[in-house]
Write a structure and sequence with these properties.
With 289 residues, the protein is an alpha/beta fold. It folds into two domains: 72 residues, no CATH class; 144 residues, Immunoglobulin-like (Sandwich), CATH 2.60.40.420. The protein is built from five helices and eleven strands; from the N terminus they run H-E-H-H-E-E-E-E-E-E-E-E-E-E-H-H. The structure holds copper (II) ion (CU).
């Protein structure tokens, strides 16, 4: 999964061009050509999601599919016209009807209980979050607010011709979100009031939240120790012509590096007209479109 260290060095070199995250960030949350499985599980939320899929839903689906195909094949063979010239005429069988109603109901109920438990886990931070990040969707880029730090910036997709070696196309942004490892993060997601619905996601975190104008959605995540690196995501709600061009780049760093970044970022991204109150900004691009 992990890219080689040469790439990390190149990423470090390009980091000096823009105000990006750490110099040594290694791509972890990145899809690969012809990938079939999930991206690495960087949070407990994603561990649960992958386990639900790989250990429960997928085997269950395979058993059901094989059962149906075998039954269908047997019926086609056993009751073909040649072998069964005189067909049965009955149309009801109470025992079979009870079974084929009860068994799927039980299966669906077990899936529902398991899912609801996971949704509850995803909705309930284990401890009070230490960092609050607000993501605001715009047509077509993301804006970020570190609401307790007075840091606010926009993250624009890097155009193809400006990509540096090692930067994945359609996934790299000029400014990166930087967050500490092993820390409970509160994620607030919304969209500009005069905008449309977007969706903020990082597959490796198991987080996907709709960004809805006028509504504030909340979620949490905590990246596991040892999972420092770079993660990518994309807007996941069809939002217009440039939906595919509003990626998300997150750098997960050590707590010390995060503190150092905060100091730099407060200078770099000092919000000009903000005093802690959250004001939805109206970017020039919103008016133009
Ligand atoms: Cu969008």
């Amino acid at each position: 999964m992990r890219r080689n260290s040469i790439k990390a060095v190149l990423l470090g070199a390009m980091a000096s061009l823009g105000f990006t995250g750490t110099a040594s960030a290694e791509d972890i949350g990145l899809s690969e050509p012809w990938q079939i499985g999930f991206q690495p599980e960087a949070t407990e939320i994603m561990e649960q999601t992958v386990s639900m899929h790989n250990d429960f839903l997928l085997p269950l689906t395979i058993v059901i599919a094989v059962f149906v195909i075998v039954l269908l094949g047997y019926t086609l063979f056993r009751f073909r016209a040649g072998a069964n010239p005189e067909p049965n005429r009955f149309s009801h069988n109470t025992f079979i009807e009870v079974v084929w109603t009860a068994v799927p109901t039980i299966i669906v109920a077990v899936i529902a209980v398991t899912s609801i438990k996971q949704i509850q886990f995803q909705d309930t931070p284990p401890t009070d979050p230490e960092v609050t990040l607000k993501a605001i969707g715009h047509q077509w880029f993301w804006e970020y607010d570190y609401v307790d730090e007075g840091i606010n910036f926009e993250a624009m997709k890097i155009e193809d011709e400006d990509l540096q070696e090692g930067q994945p196309r359609l996934l790299s942004t000029d400014n990166h979100i930087v967050l500490p490892v092993d820390t409970v993060i509160r994620l607030l997601v919304t969209a500009n009031p005069i905008d449309v619905i977007h969706s903020w996601t990082i597959p490796s975190f198991g987080v996907k939240v709709d960004a809805i104008p006028g509504r504030l959605n909340e979620r949490w995540f905590k990246v596991k120790q040892g999972f420092e690196g770079r993660y990518y995501g994309q807007c996941s709600e069809l939002c217009g012509a440039r939906h595919a061009y509003m990626p998300i780049t997150v750098d997960i760093v050590s707590k010390e590096e995060y503190q150092a970044w905060l100091l730099k970022a407060k200078e770099e991204f000092a919000s000009l007209d903000r005093d802690g109150t959250v004001v939805a900004s109206l970017a020039a691009s919103d008016i133009a479109n």
